[in-house]
Specification:
The protein is α/β, with parallel strands linked by helices and about 325 residues long. About 40% of the residues lie in helices and about 15% in strands. It has 13 helices and eleven strands. It has helices at about 30-40, 55-60, 75-80, 100-105, 110-125, 150-160, 180-185, 205-215, 235-250, 265-270, 275-285, 295-305, 310-320, and strands at about 20-25, 45-50, 65-70, 90, 130-135, 165-170, 170-175, 190, 200, 225-230, 255. α6 (about 150-160) links the parallel β5 and β6. α1 crosses α8 (about 205-215), α3 runs parallel beside α5 and α5 (about 110-125) packs parallel to α6. The chain is globular.
């Protein structure tokens, strides 16, 4: 059984850090991990939430500082970013292209385009010295892919207005807010969404640590562009299943989420579900091999050696209680 290795980065601070970091998207799956990673470092976390957001989980983590803001309300963002004491960094993981937005019938494209421009402008006006954007691997190469292209627009705007920033272009997450992996692993299978497609694998907790390091430790000279984030080498569903087999000490096989006969029918299904149409476009692009880091040396330079697929799976399995 492989022993999970800690990801590169500083150890937990022994004393409280007086710096303030504002987390946008704090109530989300990744946002919660980012808050947790920052609190472990001893910094003061300021969570930007909507007026109607449930703050229970954030309070349980120890968050006491909340500012209300909406990506589609520029005035609210100006107030949130201008809160005192002024934040040393903003980490933005909010996304219009999400299950939450679908449930609330939010305008996904508006939040991810106009909304992010509003947020970036408010951050710049407030004089916050660094903006850490959670972006998407390959977003600069996917002009017609929903959400991917919108993240690149945010990167472009950050550069255009001269806001110091670092964009973490994240690869494919092994875990999601609705994580179906553990229940499938219990049955001896890994759910393979896109069989055969190589993808830079990522565990959300690892990305959260990278975001904390970017906000707190990297030099100001690093706040000038983007960096691809993912596993040392791309992982297919078969490779991930093999990693689970080795980590758990029992056979795990990759099983396609969509049966072969259904794949040709997916375009018809999207006629009745516009949101699925966007996801189908994303899936087609990923199958073409676009979800692979082209510059892995940059991740190594900023955060140390990228984890292997097996190390990523090992950390995930440990945290989910899958390792006996």
């Amino acid at each position: 059984m492989t022993t999970p290795q800690p990801i590169a980065g500083p150890t937990v601070a022994a004393e409280a850090d007086t710096r303030v970091v504002t987390v946008v998207g704090a109530t989300g799956h990744l946002g919660g991990y980012i808050v947790e990673a920052l609190i472990k470092r001893g910094v003061h976390v300021r969570a930007m939430v909507r007026a109607t957001s449930n703050r229970t989980s954030l309070r349980a983590l120890g968050v006491t500082d909340f500012v209300v803001g909406d990506l589609n309300d520029a005035a609210s963002l100006q107030s949130a970013m201008g809160a005192e004491p002024r934040a040393a960094a903003v980490i933005a993981s909010a996304a219009g292209f999400s299950a939450h937005s679908a449930k609330t019938k939010a305008d996904n494209s508006k939040a991810d385009t106009e909304g992010y421009r509003n947020l970036i402008d408010a951050t710049k006006a407030a004089g916050v010295p660094r903006f850490i954007l959670i972006s998407i691997l390959g977003c600069d190469r996917a002009p017609n892919v929903p959400h991917f292209s919108q993240k690149f627009e945010a990167e472009t705007h950050l550069k255009a207005i001269g806001q110091p920033y670092l964009s973490l272009r994240a690869g494919a997450f092994i875990d999601r807010s609705r994580d179906i992996v553990p229940e499938n692993i219990a049955k001896g299978v890994f759910p393979d969404i896109m069989p055969g497609a190589p993808m830079a694998l990522l565990y959300a907790r690892d990305l959260a640590r990278y975001a904390a390091i970017a906000a707190l430790d990297l030099p100001a000279s690093a706040m000038k562009g983007s960096v691809d984030i993912g596993s040392e080498i791309p992982g297919t569903g078969e490779k991930v299943a093999a990693a689970f087999t080795k980590v758990l000490g029992r056979p795990i096989r990759a099983k396609p989420v969509f049966p072969a006969w259904l794949t040709p029918l997916l375009p018809l299904v999207t006629l009745f579900a516009p949101r699925l149409r966007d996801q189908l476009i994303v899936m087609r692009w990923v199958r073409q091999g676009g979800y692979v880091s082209r510059e892995p040396h940059e991740q190594k330079a900023l955060f140390g050696e990228a984890p292997t697929v097996e190390e990523t799976v090992a950390r995930y399995a440990r945290d989910k209680g899958l390792v006996r």
